Amino acid sequence: MDTTPNSKLVRINNYLNRHAAWPYAALTLSMLFFASNQILGRIIPGEVPPIGLSFWRWVLAGLLILPFTWRRLLEHIDLILVNIKLLLKLTFALVILGNTTIYIALHYTTAINAGVVSMTQPAVTIFLTWLFFRETVTRSQILGALIAAVGVLVIILRGDIQALANVTINIGDFWMLASVCGFAYYAVFLRQSPKGIPPLVLLNILQILGVLVLLPFYLWETAYVMPMEVNYTTVISVLWAGIIVAVAAMGLWNFGNQAVGANKASAFVYVRLLFITILAMIILGEVLQPYHFPAFAFIILGVYLVSRVKRQTM
User: Residue 225: helix, strand or coil by DSSP?
Assistant: First the structure.
């Protein structure tokens, strides 16, 4: 019996391919981890510099994975260099726009505004897949996105439609919009990543490139805004953001996104907002209100309608 690492990976991939629910389970769990990142970002403003947190989280994540990937990195160095422009594009979209801007945004924007802006991610993803790849958008996907959006609006407006009148735009909202566009762009173009590079190796490549891309911004923040001090808050923040978010969440998201497609995967942003609400109750002491129940029902129905559509072949 073949027991080489490659044969084991093949058997694992074959098992996952035979069980269609695995990608959706991976996406759901990734949303829980991403939700924890949002809660973290709301707890630490003023104590941990946003770019510093992002920089050291990617350093930690890259070092954690490197012992398992360094041989494969050397084996695929030619393939990496050939695709370096695409990899840098994915890195900038994910690390700079998709992730670092979240920590910056949560220093300024309100919860309602952040929720409204982040709700646009599925629409942005569907638009980008149509714009760049002419991927068909079905009526079920559009209907599901709209139904889930209704559920999110019920939550962020707390059941009061008049709350829309109190929504104002500030610089944090624009940072959140940049985050949404960056992560959607990354999800859409992830399909172009070299097939010969294993997912874990690809993630490590993006982490390493992300550190290099972030370094000038980190040095600027340290010199002119706020240095990254070593204390209990910063250490815990970096450990959580590095291990749970940058490694576990991103790995699960990459697997699910590549398996079901960017359009279906983008619908899980509503699941993330559901998790954010639950975590806010537990960690931030917020109370579950009656309007949450119909909102969650809309979110679950919307995600189901989007995810049940067969992926379009190109």
Answer: coil
pLDDT digits (tens, 9 = 90+) for 124-151: 887 888 888 877 777 887 887 788 777 7
pLDDT band at 52 (very low <50, low <70, confident <90, very high): very high
230 in any annotated domain: yes
Identify whether the C-beta of residue 171 lies closer than 8 Å to the C-beta of residue 108: yes
Which structural domain, as residue segments, surrounds residue 162?
A: 24-307
- What b-and-e string marks burial along 25-40, b requiring 16 or more CB atoms within 10 Å of the CB? ebbbbbbbbbbbbbbb
**What pTM was computed for the model?**
0.75
> Can you point out the beta strands (E) in 48-147?
none
Half-sphere exposure of 124 (CA within 13 A, CB side): 17
Asked whether residue 4 is assigned to any structural domain, the reply reads no
Query: CA 274, CA 292: separation in Å to the nearest integer?
Result: 9
